[in-house]
Specification:
With 186 residues, the chain is α/β, with parallel strands linked by helices. The protein contains six helices and five strands, in the order E-H-E-H-E-H-E-H-E-H-H. The protein has a five-stranded parallel beta sheet, with helices on both faces.
Length: 186
């Protein structure tokens, strides 16, 4: 049985280090684990209950929900914007939290990782992301953490997939998430 993980990246920038970290997760996924790197968060409109109506949900939001419905767990990549979670990632969580109590996140394991320019690697944003995704119904893996500081310097010439320390930390998070997702899917 394979485990399906949906990766959501909270940065839309083409050269995003968090996007590169997600690519590293795809590259180093354990055998039997499929990580889908979701494309299209920029197209998902801000959550508004007035447009979240059965039969007329915006296409981009419907695609996000469909992808989330096919997955066994979530891996969220959060940079830190002004000390907190990026709006695009929070918006994805909001869409996936609905309908209330039965959203696509409900009962599925989620891990949050990321990298940021600052000396703490975005821990505030990642903590806020854990809080938000947990309130939205996911089972947050509180011990599955990876915060990589100094992204601009650290990844100036090295892709995260080629950084041994990053790969080791990412592999540990993936193993925890895979174990939890496999158990949840069984």
């Amino acid at each position: 049985m394979s485990v399906r993980i949906l990766a959501l990246v909270g940065s839309l920038r083409a050269g995003s280090h968090n996007r590169q970290l997600a690519e590293a997760a795809v590259k180093h996924a354990p055998e039997g684990v499929e990580i889908e790197l979701f494309e299209g968060l920029a197209d998902v409109p801000f959550y508004n209950e007035d447009i979240d109506v059965e039969g007329s949900v915006p296409a981009a939001a419907a695609r996000l929900r469909e992808a989330a419905g096919r997955t066994d767990g979530f891996l969220l990549f959060s940079p830190e914007y002004n000390g907190t979670i990026p709006a695009v990632l929070k918006n994805a969580i909001d869409w996936l939290s609905r309908p209330y109590g039965a959203g696509a996140l409900s009962g599925k394991p989620a891990a949050v990782v990321g990298t940021a320019f600052g000396q703490f690697g975005g821990v505030w944003a990642q903590d806020e992301t854990r809080k938000s995704v947990g309130i939205a119904g996911a089972t947050v893996l509180e011990d599955a953490k990876l915060s990589i500081p100094g992204s601009v310097v650290r990844f100036a010439e090295t892709h995260p997939a080629d950084d041994a320390e990053v790969v080791t930390g990412l592999t540990q998070v993936l193993e925890q998430l895979t174990t939890s997702a496999g158990a949840a899917a069984a």
